UniProtKB/TrEMBL annotation:
<dbReference type="InterPro" id="IPR018146">
    <property type="entry name" value="Glyoxalase_1_CS"/>
</dbReference>
<dbReference type="InterPro" id="IPR004360">
    <property type="entry name" value="Glyas_Fos-R_dOase_dom"/>
</dbReference>
<dbReference type="InterPro" id="IPR037523">
    <property type="entry name" value="VOC_core"/>
</dbReference>
<dbReference type="GO" id="GO:0004462">
    <property type="term" value="F:lactoylglutathione lyase activity"/>
</dbReference>
<keyword id="KW-0479">Metal-binding</keyword>
<protein>
    <submittedName>
        <fullName>Glyoxalase</fullName>
    </submittedName>
</protein>
<dbReference type="Pfam" id="PF00903">
    <property type="entry name" value="Glyoxalase"/>
</dbReference>
<dbReference type="GO" id="GO:0046872">
    <property type="term" value="F:metal ion binding"/>
</dbReference>
<feature type="domain" description="VOC">
    <location>
        <begin position="169"/>
        <end position="283"/>
    </location>
</feature>
<feature type="domain" description="VOC">
    <location>
        <begin position="10"/>
        <end position="127"/>
    </location>
</feature>
<dbReference type="InterPro" id="IPR029068">
    <property type="entry name" value="Glyas_Bleomycin-R_OHBP_Dase"/>
</dbReference>
Length: 283
């Protein structure tokens, strides 16, 4: 998983707002397989290795249900170490009868899609070896095909599911945005990402280090979609990891050059994309 370490810039964790903290803790432990590493009255941190938080869930006061047709989270994506790990997850979902929203072969990866109790989208996937990815110059070839579940299950090791593997990481995040022109400028000229795939005029996939994508951006909720209210279920923020202070400072300077606001909150650099999605710039 060299695409998620220096010198690349990548997503390390997401912070979600939920309507019922205890319900969400139960879901993320029993259905997804996270370990609970920290909990307060209104917040909990979830980890695959028992140390590093990948997802933080928070129940704000006066929380409102997820608002349709707004910007924000489409899904966050948990990257498993291997195809056999994906087989275990499939067996687990079959056993507990949890409904999936989709299952796709993207050529570069194989993925399952579902949602948490509040409708926050989740992808759980395994990458195909990067040596098998096909590129048309700077664009990676991706598709959405039927997932060969039988083939994946054949790679299972027969051991029972016992939660997420400890080396599961946050593979990418996919966001609803209100438009793509300023969004492309913000993420590419500002944050330093490269476009690796365009889907017509409705979606961009961007990465560093020639990963198939660290971030997906789409306008599928409509051009000009508004940001959700502050106390709505959904994405609070996500964290980008920069390899060192020099590259982070360069990103901050680039953001300010294009007119994007950068501010500090609790000692962390934070910015907002043109659609109101908040991003922590970390090391």
């Amino acid at each position: 998983m060299n695409f998620h370490r220096e010198p690349n810039v990548f997503v390390s964790q997401v912070h979600l707002k939920v309507a019922d903290l205890n319900r969400s803790i139960t879901f993320y432990q029993q259905v997804i397989g996270f370990q609970l590493i920290e909990q307060t009255e209104n917040k909990a941190s979830l980890s695959a290795d028992g140390k590093t938080a990948l997802v933080t869930i928070e129940q704000p006061e006066n929380i409102r249900p997820k608002q349709p047709r707004t910007t924000g989270l489409y899904h966050f994506a948990l990257l498993l170490p291997s195809r056999s790990d994906l087989a275990k997850v499939i067996e687990h979902f079959i056993k507990i009868g949890y409904p999936l929203q989709g299952a796709s072969d993207h050529l570069v990866s194989e993925a399952l899609y579902l949602a948490d109790p509040d409708g926050n989208g989740i992808e759980i996937y395994a990458d195909r070896p990067s040596t098998t990815w096909k590129w048309n110059q700077t664009e990676v070839v991706m598709s959405t095909e039927r997932l060969d579940i039988e083939s994946i299950l054949a790679e299972g090791d027969g051991k029972p599911w016992s939660g997420l593997p400890s080396d599961t990481i946050m593979g990418h995040i996919h966001l609803h945005v209100s438009e793509l022109h300023k969004t492309e400028e913000f993420y590419c000229k500002g944050l330093g990402f490269d476009i690796v795939t365009r889907y017509g005029g409705q979606a961009l996939f961007i990465s560093t280090g020639r990963y198939h994508h660290h971030i997906g951006l789409n306008t599928w909720n409509g051009i000009g979609a508004p940001a959700p209210s502050e106390n709505s279920v959904g994405l609070k923020n996500f964290t980008l990891i920069y390899p060192n202070e020099e590259t982070r400072k360069a990103a901050v300077a680039s953001l300010e050059k294009i007119g994007a606001a950068v501010f500090q909150e609790n000692g962390q650099f934070m910015t907002e994309d043109p659609s109101g999605n908040r991003i922590l710039l970390s090391l």
